[in-house]
Amino acid sequence: MANINTNTRAQKMTFWEKIYLPEIAKGLSLTFKQIFEPKITRSYPEERFEPTGSYRGRPVLVLEEEGERCVACGLCSRVCPALAIEVQAGETLTRDKERYPEKFEINMLRCIFCGFCEEVCPEEAIVMSKDYEMVYQNREDAILGKDKLLVPVAQLQDRLEYLRTHQYYEPKAA
Amino acid sequence: MPTITIDDRKIDAKAGQTIIQAALENGMDVPHFCWHPSLSVAGNCRMCLVDVGMPKMNPDRTPALDDNGNPVIMFMPKLQIACATQVSEGMVVRLGHPKVETAQNAVMEFLLVNHPLDCPICDEAGQCKLQEYGYKHSNGASRFDETKNHKDKRVSLGPNVLFDGERCISCSRCIRYAKEEAEQPVLSFVQRGDHVTIETFPGTQFDSPYSMNVIEICPVGALTSPDFRFKARVWDMSFNETICTGCSRGCNTQAGVRNNEILRLEPNTNMDVNQYWMCDHGRLTQYDFVNQNRVTKPLVRSNGTLAETDWNDAIQKATELLKGVNGSEIAVLGSSRATNEDNYALARLAKEVLKTPNVDFFRFENASFGDAKLRKSDMSPNSIGADAVGVKPSAGGVSAKDLAAKISSGAIKALYVLDDDIAALSPELASALDKLKVLIVHAHNHTATAKKAHVVFASATYAELEGTYTNFQNRVQHVEPFIVTTENERKMGMKMSRLDKFGAHNDRWTQGERRNCRQSWRVITSLAKGLGANADAWRYRASEDVFEELADKISFFSGLDYALLDERKGVVSGEAEKEFAPAFEYESHTLKPN
Ligand code: SF4
Ligand code: SF4
Ligand code: SF4
Ligand code: SF4
Ligand code: FES
């Protein structure tokens, strides 16, 4: 196919467009206007962003007084599209729930913060926290075990409240 | 042969059959909980209700016809249970009629009234009949908003069976199984109405050698295995078909594997071998030796200690050791626990390369193990096969029973052992092994025998190899690997779980041990070549090559090949030509899709 060299964009430009200077002035006027607009940037980390309950940060496990809520059902692990969660159940005879997570690990390098784990959990045991500061020095550190995942329920009130007021689905009426 | 119509399909049923049998055999599903083909009919779950009609008869006993000349069908005023209604000529059955659907929904609503709905913590979830029918045959709504009944959740019915009263739907399958199949009638319903539960009679427990089969036939998760409880969710495991190597029955089984570790074994239906069952011994003993204490690499003794090495080195070392001994001073032991292929290669090595008459294998007879149901007193999977492929002393050769004496007297200086831990068999044999100049061992585990050896070849277990075993019926059964080794490296066709498929090399849940063990015939082939055998006579590249040759040379196996064995789930020696019609196999409930 032959090269097309008629009716190009350059040929269609007007004289004023061709000399370019007015266009630069137009652009810069926008820039200068922004200087006097209110600022929306923040001097992180001195000034921190405090998310609301609807924020989907790092998934964490809810810790109650008598222990974790999680019953190690593995549904979060099954639903997780990124295969970030590994759960190994153990049996306990001391609590009224028979199962507990012997091991619960989330690989934060895999997690995509979709919130499916929270949605599927039958115990409301895994929720999305407000934590967005995730820096790891190596891959191993990014795999968080129960020690890093368990967060006392008192600190998760915003999210739990949000979940209660924003049901993902309406239970089918009988 | 009554001809009946099920949902507009004409079916030739067998006389005396029930509707459910006729439907299932013809590929139509009738939802049911309590019916099981090998148990008596209880008819108590009511899930199998269907609409049944019979042709209307004129007073002269001819079928009444309507204006179009079709027979007039009189449907019964109430639905009938398909599991207890026998077929008869002209019967019309409607499985998908709205009346039937309403009834199924009502039955489900009833069954779920007191059901705890604790699927998230229930081992059955994912392969539960109640869950499945909850999706298929119920609208999910319940009018019951009172408090549910609570019952005991952790009752031991026997050493290997735990009972959760809340999950039980009172189908009585376990009670009938205990009575009719395990022949230990110790289970019974107690209480009535919604307080009904299951107990063992006072002073008894359900400890039959076949007790754990109730765990599978229980349609829900009311019966669980203390051995498996909570180890894994079913959907995280892969299920591959294999056979049990616990005794010479060779029950067909499937192995649940996660992270290259066997987590449980359960029976696979084979009406000619084990029907729907397996014994507790097989279930509980046939995975530990695969998972634990494995010889993961070949070992060679240097300066008195066994050290890990690579295959070339180990084979070279074994070659050198064997070259230093006269053929007649070498004894070779096959194994009734190794495959036909491995034993065949070993017999060839002994007779053609080492030129020794001293070839035999030990039998593992235990009269107290055998019974009239499944268990056989020959506690090894392949003694018939080892015999058939020629693992036996030639004229003047030393037999297994004389071995200890011959070693002690110095007549035997070198011993080559396939798989078995012979040092555990008798103290004489164990101490005789110390006198040997050369001891070469194929071993799965770090056994007493392996610890005494000069060269140890890491040997693949039944879980990691492809081969065949011959059971007590002379039935040759084919197994394929389901545990990954560096040798088989995910053989084509090996079923994988989701975790296997999508795991990366650096995920913690893919770090299961991947052993560098090999099938014995492969090692023996290298050894034969090392010892100067004609390479043309040892051209095996896969287990199938070995089997082809042995089917060719040994009349016991004539006409057999892997494809035929797979198609028929095992073939009895000499019946390769026999007419074969696949039998209907009932599957109560399994993981879907699998
Ligand atoms: S948020 Fe999504 S990706 Fe992250 S762990 Fe939960 S399910 Fe997996
Ligand atoms: S879904 Fe909830 S209860 Fe189940 S394992 Fe995950 S966190 Fe635990
Ligand atoms: S325990 Fe299982 S098999 Fe036995 S009656 Fe209950 S539901 Fe049926
Ligand atoms: S009867 Fe024999 S082959 Fe069958 S499960 Fe028991 S030990 Fe295994
Ligand atoms: S299967 Fe027919 S009543 Fe249970």
Q: Characteristics of this structure?
A:
heterodimer, A: about 170 residues, alpha+beta, Alpha-Beta Plaits, four-stranded mixed beta sheet, three-stranded antiparallel beta sheet, 7 strands, about 20% strand, B: about 600 residues, Ubiquitin-like (UB roll), Rossmann fold, seven-stranded mixed beta sheet, six-stranded mixed beta sheet, binds iron/sulfur cluster, binds FE2/S2 (inorganic) cluster
Report on the structure:
Chain A is α+β, with helices and mostly antiparallel strands. Chain A has a domain at 59-165: Alpha-Beta Plaits. Chain A has seven helices and seven strands; from the N terminus they run αααββαββαββαβα. In chain A, strands 1, 2, 5 and 7 form a four-stranded mixed beta sheet that branches. Chain A has a three-stranded antiparallel beta sheet with strand order 3-4-6. Chain A is elongated. Chain A starts with 8 loop residues before the first helix and ends in a 9-residue tail after the last helix. The model of chain A has no long low-confidence stretch (mean pLDDT 91). Chain B has three domains: 3-111, Ubiquitin-like (UB roll) (Roll); 119-224, Alpha-Beta Plaits; 299-463 and 518-572, Rossmann fold (3-Layer(aba) Sandwich). Chain B contains 17 helices and 24 strands. A seven-stranded mixed beta sheet of chain B has the order 16-15-21-20-19-17-18. In chain B, α8 (311-323) crosses α15 (520-530), α9 (340-354) runs parallel beside α15 (520-530) and α9 (340-354) packs across α16. The longest helix of chain B has 15 residues, at 340-354. The A-B interface holds A 71-75, 77-78, 83, 86, 89-91, 93, 97-99, 105, 107, 122-123, 139, 143, 172-174 and B 120-121, 140-143, 145, 153-154, 229-231, 233, 235-236, 498-499, 502-503, 506-509. One iron/sulfur cluster (SF4) is lined by residues 59, 80, 82, 84-85, 106, 111-117 of chain A.
